[in-house]
Amino acid sequence: MGEEILINFTPMETRVAVIENGMPQEIYVERAKRRGIVGNIYMGKVARVLPGMQAAFIDIGLERAAFIHVDEVVDQSLPAEQRNSTSISQVLREGQGLLVQVTKDPIGTKGARLTTHISIPSRYLVLMPGSTHIGISQRIEDPQERERLRNQMQGLMQSETTNTPEWGVILRTVAEGVTEVELESDLQFLRRLWDSIRHKIKQVKPPAIVYEDLPLNMRALRDMAHAGVERIRIDSRETFQRAQEFVQALVPEIEEKLEYYPGERPIFDMFNVEEEMQKALGRKVELKSGGYLIFDQTEAMTTVDVNTGAFVGHRNLEETIFKTNLEAATAIGRQLRLRNLGGIIIIDFIDMEDPDHQRQVLRTLERVLEKDHAKCKVTGVSELGLVEMTRKRTRESLEQVLCEPCSHCQGRGSLKTPETVCYEIFREILRQHRAYDTETYLVLAAQSVVDHLLDEVSDHVAELEAFIGKTVRFQVEPMYTPEQFDVVLR
Question: pTM here?
Answer without folding.
Answer: 0.80
